[in-house]
Task: structure prediction
Amino acid sequence: MSDNELGTYLRTWREAVTPAEAGLPAGPRRRTPGLRRAELATLAGISVEYLTRLEQGRDRNPSAQVLGALADALNLSLADRMLLRRLTKEGDGGDPLVCAAAPTLSRTARPTVRAVLDHLEPAPAVVVNWIGDVLAHTAGYARLVGPIGLFDDERPNLLRHLFTDERVRSAYRDWDRVADDLVARLRHGVPLRDPHLAELAEELTVTAGADFADRFADLTTTPRRTGSQHLDHPEAGSLRLLHETLALSDVGQRLIVHLPADQATAAALDRLNGRRPGALRAVGETG
Result:
């Protein structure tokens, strides 16, 4: 096996991507298959010298930002981005972000919180830890987000799903605003030196590229406790939802409850849950 797998991988992809696929003119007399080093370096915003060092194996520890920029420039799929990240980790001798002194990250919701979820049915509600791992949820929440793929992953995570599943981008009409808010909550709600945050941020910088990295670097956007979303649901149709976030600060978790913003959405959610109209009511409705 090559001792420079990362460099070989980058060079192979560079030579496989045509100028047209990268949005560049082909030009006459191209002796290099695919992209020239200078072209890829320009697209990724790095120097030709640095790209050369990476391909030749003289630098095996590129930052997550560089990997994300290269993945964007080469238009890599999610699977290819994950392999790129793994090759970098292996070439660097392991993952330095996981340390013995890392704070305990909650992986379960306590029984009283689960009881609260039971009382919230059929409203879509979910409990997540500080990096967005799903710990518990109502059946109504599963019916809302299951059809757009959140639970296809054995360990579902709101950020990973939002940034790497194309079904989510198609479903949320206001995807950019949802992404802004979710990353702002991650950025401002977790200590910067938290190893779990660092590991997730590095992963998404590679797998999602600039869509995530630019938001994560922006300190001006602050999270909101309440907000709205417009979801084109594959089964229930157009849904307008409001959400309220309640902090469970003693365990580093939060409870997010989604509520219908209008009566049409309330009726659609009732149908989705197999209930008669009226089980859910639009926010602000009286009587």
Notes: The longest helix spans residues 175-189. The first strand starts at residue 125 and ends at 129.
